[in-house]
Amino acid sequence: MEVSHAEEGISADGGSSWSQWQLNLSTKYQQCLDKSTPYTLWRWLSVVAIALIYGIRVYYLEGFYIVTYGLGIYLLNQLLGFLSPQVDPESEGPTLPSKGTDEFKPFIRRLPEFKFWYVVLSCPLFVSHNIHILLFLLPEIIYTLDSWEVNKLCFHVSRASSRVA
């Protein structure tokens, strides 16, 4: 019995239908990003909306504060990269032209605005997806336990591991 290429999940050019689907999806995603480039105000308004939704969600869940703290530190690091120059002016010397042949070097950011926007947009989406995973709530549970409960928890874990061994 002969099996056609379509039944095997292989396209006529030799690639799988899954890789073709991924290629189409990534192409459409890149096109959407390219189309959004000139709309700076709307891009940043979408970031504010997503950040508000994330903040309200964390407030109502009453948890994931440590994850949110980590997100804040990462976004602060990205903000510093956005505000920092690509070349350190102290190590390069004077930045203004001193001769007629010298060129003026404008302020070039270490992290361009579009990449900064993309990181600031994607991080809350990624973290809000991970909020569904209760494993990320574990550090807050351990943090809120008092020392007696932590010792009791460690005792039960050590007893259970000694039984297994």
UniProtKB/TrEMBL annotation:
Q: Name one GO cellular component term.
A: Golgi membrane
Q: What InterPro entries does the record point to?
A: Rer1
Predominantly, its location class is membrane
Top-rank lineage group of the source organism? Eukaryota
Q: Which GO terms describe its biological process?
A: protein retention in ER lumen; retrograde vesicle-mediated transport, Golgi to endoplasmic reticulum
Which keywords label this protein? Answer: Membrane, Transmembrane, Transmembrane helix
Pfam families tied to this protein = Rer1 (PF03248)
Transmembrane parts of this sequence: 41-59, 66-84, 116-138
Among its keywords, does the record have Thylakoid? Answer: no
Q: Where in the cell is it found?
A: Membrane
Q: What membrane topology does this protein have? A: Multi-pass membrane protein
Q: What family is it from?
A: Belongs to the RER1 family.
Q: What is this protein called?
A: Protein RER1
Q: Which organism is it from?
A: Adiantum capillus-veneris (Maidenhair fern)
